[in-house]
């Protein structure tokens, strides 16, 4: 046991990202829930104090121009772009992920043209994507076909208009093959829409390199934007001119202050906007993105894999075989940045997670039997991973 503690200390000392933890407001807790709500970067409260007192309190309406409020959705989109492998001008920030799924699915089915009446949807998806895709399909006259990601190539055909997939599965932590599946979707003449909620900020995505058509994601997990921080929509540059938003609000108009009755869409990523941006949340997100200055996503991925490997090793060493079973794949190419453990006795899942939280190890659970541990490489260390596994073994009464 002390061997693993010593290894954790050595791994933390050699970790090139270890200093970043100081940028966050954290206590003695082992925080392994950054895949649900990222931690608060220390400098954000002062920045928000300025936004509220100076920009809102003193400048008031002038801030739409003078404080850059009006252009924040595109500006912050361009800050997120390098983190997901996109060139500038293709991402706009705003609305929730659910709303962006709606925009993306409807727009993709319109881009696919007539004669294609099926939308394939990840059968294991986070529920909101399936609910929204189902409603979108009813409105556009398409039919939703639920398909497990691995079965997508076999399900594609001349009727497929679009495919909605998750890059990393929220429950199992499985990483899906974005390059391979996108290529298969294109070979069938359809469009690929990816949900990046559980991958952006944790691993390289390569949106442009893999010619993804549209993508959405949230910013409150590995991007640490804060509770309910706005989501984003990526529309590849080659689709922007034909992108036909199902929610063409006035802020996506070419001349929003012309206030004319006829809708003329703006060019570029602005076309994905809807209504007035949620400025306070948006500017908290913008400030929080400062922690990425000088940080490479490749380095984050290397640490994420090392952390999850080490946690799995500690669980195997401390917890007797059979009490919990990892459902997150062991293969690096199939693993996101979380480890999900299935409890042998489903009824133990809730009391086990409650006991972990009481002992300062914060993960979460997904019913009926999954304990989830998210590893945010910017602020989680190897000693955290070792302690979490050790406390898990204690809680299981080993
Ligand atoms: C994969 C995935 N998609 C969508 C959502 C929901 O997004 P929102 O609540 O921002 O609409 C979540 C998490 O809440 C998620 O994990
Ligand atoms: N978005 C959330 C929320 O508003 C409250 C509680 C949890 C969440 C989540 O993000 C859940 C998350 N998408 C999941 O992976 O289960």
From TrEMBL:
A UniProt-annotated Pfam family: KYNU_C
Designated name of the protein: Kynureninase
Pathway info: Cofactor biosynthesis; NAD(+) biosynthesis; quinolinate from L-kynurenine: step 2/3; Amino-acid degradation; L-kynurenine degradation; L-alanine and anthranilate from L-kynurenine: step 1/1
Residue positions, PTM N6-(pyridoxal phosphate)lysine: 221
InterPro entries assigned to the protein according to its UniProt record, in alphabetical order: Kynureninase, PyrdxlP-dep_Trfase, PyrdxlP-dep_Trfase_major, PyrdxlP-dep_Trfase_small
Cofactor entry: pyridoxal 5'-phosphate
Class in the EC hierarchy, top level: hydrolase
Hydrolase recorded as keyword: yes
Coiled-coil annotated spans: none
EC number: 3.7.1.3
Hydrolase as UniProt keyword: yes
Entry's Gene Ontology molecular function annotations: kynureninase activity
Residues involved in pyridoxal 5'-phosphate binding: 97-98, 126-129, 195, 198, 220, 250, 276
Subunit description: Homodimer.
Enzymatic reactions: L-kynurenine + H2O = anthranilate + L-alanine + H(+); 3-hydroxy-L-kynurenine + H2O = 3-hydroxyanthranilate + L-alanine + H(+)
Signal peptide residues on this chain, from the entry's feature table: none
UniProt KW keywords: Hydrolase, Pyridine nucleotide biosynthesis, Pyridoxal phosphate
Record lineage: Bacteria, Bacillati, Actinomycetota, Actinomycetes, Kitasatosporales
Family: Belongs to the kynureninase family.
Free-text function comment from the UniProt entry: Catalyzes the cleavage of L-kynurenine (L-Kyn) and L-3-hydroxykynurenine (L-3OHKyn) into anthranilic acid (AA) and 3-hydroxyanthranilic acid (3-OHAA), respectively.
Gene name of this polypeptide: kynU
Domain of life: Bacteria
């Amino acid at each position: 046991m002390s061997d693993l503690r010593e290894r954790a200390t050595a791994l933390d000392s050699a970790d090139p990202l270890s200093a970043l933890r100081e940028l966050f407001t954290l206590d003695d807790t082992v925080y392994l829930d950054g895949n649900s709500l990222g931690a608060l970067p220390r400098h954000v409260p002062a920045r928000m104090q300025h936004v509220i007192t100076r920009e809102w309190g003193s400048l008031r309406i002038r801030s739409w121009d003078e404080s850059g409020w009006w252009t924040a959705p595109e500006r912050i989109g361009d800050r997120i772009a390098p983190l997901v492998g996109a060139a500038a001008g293709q991402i706009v920030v705003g609305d929730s992920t659910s709303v962006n799924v709606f925009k993306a699915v409807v727009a993709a089915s319109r881009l696919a043209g007539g004669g294609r009446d099926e939308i394939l949807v990840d059968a294991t998806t986070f529920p909101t994507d399936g609910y929204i895709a189902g409603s979108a399909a009813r409105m556009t006259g398409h039919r939703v076909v639920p398909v497990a990601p691995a079965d997508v190539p076999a399900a594609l055909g001349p009727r497929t208009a679009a495919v909605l997939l998750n890059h990393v599965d929220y429950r199992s932590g499985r990483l899906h093959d974005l390059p391979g599946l996108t290529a298969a979707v294109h070979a069938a003449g359809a469009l690929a829409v990816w949900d990046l909620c559980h991958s952006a900020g944790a691993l390289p995505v390569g949106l442009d390199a893999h010619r993804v058509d549209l993508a959405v994601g949230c910013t409150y997990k590995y991007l640490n934007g804060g509770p309910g921080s706005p989501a984003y929509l990526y529309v590849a540059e080659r689709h922007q001119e034909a992108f036909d938003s199902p929610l063409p609000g006035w802020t996506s108009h070419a001349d929003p202050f012309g206030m004319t009755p006829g809708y003329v869409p703006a060019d570029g990523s602005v076309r994905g906007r809807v209504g007035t941006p949620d400025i306070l949340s948006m500017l908290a997100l913008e400030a929080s993105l400062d922690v990425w200055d000088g940080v490479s996503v490749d380095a984050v991925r290397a640490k994420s894999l090392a952390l999850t490997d080490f946690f799995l090793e500690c669980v195997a060493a401390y917890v007797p075989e059979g009490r919990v079973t990892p459902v997150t794949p062991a293969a690096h190419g199939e693993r996101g940045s979380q480890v999900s453990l299935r409890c042998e006795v489903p009824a133990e899942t809730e009391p086990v997670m409650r006991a972990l939280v009481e002992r300062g190890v914060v993960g979460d659970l997904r019913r009926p039997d999954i304990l989830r541990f998210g590893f945010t490489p910017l602020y989680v260390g190897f000693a955290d991973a070792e302690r979490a596994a050790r406390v898990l073994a204690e809680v299981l009464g080993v």
